[in-house]
Amino acid sequence: MAIAIGTLQDKLTSNEVIARARARAALIPDLLVEAQHIANTVTSGWHGRKRRGSGDTFWQFRPYDQSEGLSRIDWRKSARDDSIYVRDQEWESAHTAWVWADSSPSMLYKSDSSDVSKQSRALVLALAMTEVLAKSGERVGWPGVTNALSHRNACERIAAQLMVSDTNDASLPLADQMRIRSEAVVFSDFLQPIEDTLEWINALSQRGVHGSIVQIIDPAEESFPFAGRTEFKDPETNRKFTFGRAETVAQDYRNLFAARKEELATQCRKLGWNYLTHHTDTLASTALVSLHMKLTGEAGIALT
Amino acid sequence: MTLGALTFGAPLLLIGLLALPIIWLLLRLTPPKPREEVFPPTRILEELGQREETPAKSPWWLTLLRLLMAAFVIFALSEPVWNAAEKSVTGSGPMLIVLDDGWTGGEDWNVRQDTARRVLNEAGSAGRPVALVFTSQGAKADLSAKRVEEWTAGLNAAQPNPIPVVLAPLAENLRTSAVSFETIVWLSGGLKSNDHEAFKTTLEAMTSSELQVYSPQSNPVALSNTRNSPEALTVDISRASSTNISDGIVTAYDSKGRSISSAPFKFDTSTLTTNAEFKLPVELRNEVVRLEVDNGSTAAGVQLLDERFRRRRVGLISGGNADQQQPLLSPLYYISRALEPFSELREASADNNIDAIKQLINERMATLVLADIGQLPTEAVEELEKWVNNGGMLIRFAGPRLARGDDGQLVPVTLRRGGRSLGGTLTWGEAQPLSSFENNSPFKGLEVPSDVTVSRQVLAEPDIDLAGKTWASLKDGTPLVTASQRGAGWIVLFHVTADASWSNLPLSGAFVDMLRRLVAVSNNVVASDQAREAVDEQVNEVQTLAPFQSLNGFGKLASPPSDARGLTVTNGKTPLVTKENPPGLYGAEDAFVAMNLFSTSPALDRITAADLPAQAVQLTYKTEDPMPFKPWLLGAALLLLALDCIAVLWMAGALKLGASRMAKTLGGLALAALLLQPESVIAQEKKDSFNFEHALRTRLAYVKTGISSLDEVSRKGMIGLTQFISSRTSLEPGEPVGLDISKDELSFYPLLYWPISASSPVPNQATMARINNFMKKGGSVLFDTRDQISGGFGSSRITAETQKLRQILSTLDIPALEPVPNNHVLTRAFYLLNVFPGRYLEGKLWVEASQSSENETDRPARPGDGVSSILITSNDFASAWATEPDGRSSFTIVPANPRQRVYAYRTGVNIVMYTLTGNYKSDQVHIPALLERLGQ
Predict the structure, then answer these.
(1) Which segment, B187-196, B909-918, B924-933, is predicted with the most confidence on average?
(2) Does A256 contact B36 at a Cβ distance shorter than 8 Å?
(3) What confidence tens digit (pLDDT) does each residue in A152-181 have?
(4) Are residues A144 and A78 in the same domain?
């Protein structure tokens, strides 16, 4: 019988993926999220708050105030003249990012023009993002699996948690852990009904969460290379749908798919979210780099 | 059911064809099974909605393919047969089948047999009694009508006979037995026999209600009347009247069945006979035992040749027996040399002439040559006369003895006593050249040689019939060769000797031609009767010869059939060919008589309507076999099925994918080939130039071990030695070469220096096989373990290098070794040496042990036949020889004794000389003795 173009792949676990994720993360420079509104938390991070506070970076010398402890006096500076100075550091705080990758059955799809399934690619990208963010000193969490962790090896921890946790097959992450001014980075194919996705985006946005969504697309899903009598099967609902001559609907399908993408992109733009698409036949690192640029704000320059 | 030549075995099944439209509908309606695809965005597709639910139709050609397939199967099942045998005879009474099994049957026997079988079967299914008669059975034929089954076995076993058809006995049989048949089927051979009329009247008299005569459309050809003239072997070829055969080829075969020559023949449009000529040299012609028409399969297409056509035996008798010591003075020498190529020569072993003549005559010589025999005893003369009268050819040569006197018998002309000399110092006349060969002689047409002169001859008395007896004459008109016929034989006289003393005729090519012609004449004139005579010697006049080999009905020579009888030969005449005396060879293996189907051209007339009774129906044999179509149709259906599978796969896209991949792969391969090709050509050219350059000059060679420092030492060492050799000896070797022994051609290098390193790998098996071959073919390998300082080869300590050498040598075929003995050639090949130092002094040089070391110790130099293929040292020669480009030595000597380096070089020279000159040097020890013997 004819050989199908696409197949469902086995689900990959996080420990298989983490090495690949690290390899890709190593390609990305330390990520500093350009946060417009950094949560006013005391947790130290590397985002300068343009005011004095606890941190490592020099902020200013200022005259000693009697109320302050003697230990705060900068003796080297004070020795230069008659005044006594105190060295202030810039207040640095960490950003909270929630990274999530879809692992629902539809993500297991792989067509023969790409090498990996969407799930594999999404997990790699998510863990790579985690690694990058954690290295930058951000607090990183995986909604539904971990809390926001502020640790250099947050990536491993999340990966370990993912291993043991019973990851549900939800197509969208739970929103309840995400607070105002945290960042949500979601990797999914967003093939669920578009209304659900929009609703989820709006809900998060109303809570003050800023999001970056990356739509993982298998090339076959976009180009629709089918012809002849073909029976299509939805891996999530297991519903079957037969076309006598698949080639006749190809153009309509492509239009519809593009329209969905456009709708998603429009909504994201409206809310100031980042929207990226990634095809599984391209390199994972390209997605990582463009996501990196979006998060650091450079993409904004590129877009205008 | 029959449609033209097409017959259906099961025509009812053709109704199945009506089902084709239904199949068509089904094929058009049933959709192909959909391809299953997992597709996550199926929801999006669902949004597109259900459209075009009617499936893709099979393309029309696929439907057509499947319909054809179905049609083929239906047709196949209905068992169509092309050219099916049809019923031909009617009636229900007894039936007579006359089957012609004469020689023409060889051509179409299967057809005749099949037709007979078919007619029999028809009779069988109609329940008619049948009588089956073969024409060769004649009077013995069983004419009683029986059940069909009783004839089948006989029919199946029947074979054509290589005999002419004789119908008279059968006609007589039919007439006398007075049985009546309702149907008569005559399966004739198509040709009229000599007694055809008798059979025709018999058939007319039998008044059967149905007479069918089958005639074949074959084109029989008959060979006959083979004759061997001096010019050619000729055979007559006859064809049947109103036939379309116009030309062909006759091939001559030798006794081992190899074809010797082929001769084409061509019939004029009007004639029925022609001939083919084999213009072969006599010696080749003598080899011919069989002539056969190409593609013929009848006994008539074969002519067997017997002793009559064979190479003749020639007996030689010379007058002078003492001449044997110096063959060039013996007259028989020239005769033998001239006759040997094409005849079998016999010299009598008996001492006196009478016994010799008797012996040779008993050995059935066709030709006797008497060289310079004068007076013969009466008894011998009588024997010879009898023999000549019986057909022998007696060739005599003149000579002093004949000139002294003959008895006037056994010479063709009366001779004058004495003889005459021409062109001598005391004679007036010039030496006479040869003038002409007479037209009535066998020498007719031979070129008259201009360089033959006769200085002495015997002269014939002038006689009235001298001119008629002269076959060749000199310029002054005197005869050179005379001949006269005696009975069936000839006496030929050469008026000169058979040696070169009287004339230079025996030295010329004409002599060979003349003798050849004479023997050829004896071949076809004399030998036949003579051979018969010989065979008939014991029984007077009549003799019975056992069949030796017979031709079968298909013209193949085989052991005689069981009913073959002995051949009664009366006065040399063979009887007619009958079933008991089939054509073939009769007699014993080396004395047989060939009997052929036709000895004279036969008249091959076809049976026409006029030759048959009025009620006869003329039919032709069906040469085409009925051809059932079933397997072909089924095969075609299977083929279509395969096509259908491929088409379905292709439509499903599986093939397209494979094809594109395949195309990519092929393209890649082609590209790679294109890219690689020029490079490989260049490489090839390079390799060639390398080889030639290295073959042109002697060079020292070393083995590249792969360790660059070691190879550099070897290279420098070889350069140093090359320079030393060039300055001290006449040998000037070329630039040394380093060889990769796994690849490079080794055969140009007499000596291979192979330094052993503990760290270099042992070469693989193929490489060692090359080395082994190199050593076997005369190359020498000098292994240097370079480890004398830490023990050395041959000592009790095993160093790493020695270990490595042992590993290398374990794969080689190494003879026993010994240290160079004091008297070995190596010690004196160029310099006199007793040690073989290199960088180190102590190590011994090991060579192949000499075979005879114990018993020849007293010899000054060991023979050493051939050069030792292996030399082993541990003294590190190359380091001692190595020189820098500026002339300095590369390494110091251990111990630092400059003389040792000189000795090291001398050792190198000796080794090179030894490998180049071999035992030539060992033979030098004999020079004083040789000079002494030369009287210097």
Answers:
(1) B909-918
(2) no
(3) 778 888 887 877 776 666 778 877 778 777
(4) no
pLDDT value, residue B508: 87
Find the distance separating the first CA and the last CA of chain B, reported in whole Å.
113
Mutate which: B45, B52, B648, vs A, most A CBs within 10 A: B45
Interface predicted TM-score (ipTM) of this complex, two decimals: 0.73
Answer whether B651 sits within 8 Å of A228, measured CB to CB.
Answer: yes
Q: Give contacts of B56 with chain A, Cβ < 8 Å.
A: 228-229, 244-245
* Cβ-based interface (< 8 Å): residues of B facing A: 31-48, 51-56, 649, 651-654, 657
The superfamily (CATH) of domain B311-535 is: Class I glutamine amidotransferase (GATase) domain (3.40.50.880)
Instruction: List Cβ neighbours of B195 (8 Å cut-off, separation of 6 or more).
Output: B166, B167, B168, B171
Q: Is A250 on the interface with B (CB under 8 A)?
A: no
List of chain B residues whose C-beta atoms are within 8 Å of the C-beta of residue A191: 40-41, 43-44
Q: How far apart are CA B732 and CA B495, in angstroms?
A: 70
CATH classification of B697-928 is 3.40.50.12140, yes or no? yes
Q: Does domain B221-308 match CATH 2.20.25?
A: no
Say whether A248 and B651 touch across the interface (CB within 8 A). no
Mark yes or no for CB contact A231/B54 under 8 Å.
no
- The CA angle B457-B458-B459, to the nearest 5 degrees, is 115
Q: Quick one: CA torsion of B280, B285, B287, B291, rounded to 10 degrees?
A: 90
A198 close contact with B: CB closer than 8 A: no
Q: Do A4 and B38 touch (CB under 8 A)?
A: yes
Q: What are the pLDDT digits (tens) for B881-908? A: 998 888 888 888 888 888 889 999 999 9
User: Could you tell me the fold of the domain covering B95-218+605-625?
Assistant: Rossmann fold (3.40.50)
CB contacts of A234 in chain B (<8 Å) are 39-40, 42-43
What angle is formed at CA B789 by the lines to CA B788 and CA B790, rounded to 5 degrees? 90
* H or E element that contains B346: strand B344-347
* Residue A1 within a domain: no
pTM reported for the whole predicted model:
0.40
Domain boundaries, chain B: 2-82, 95-218+605-625, 221-308, 311-535, 697-928
Q: Which domain holds residue A198?
A: 6-38+95-303
Sign of CA dihedral B813, B815, B819, B820: negative
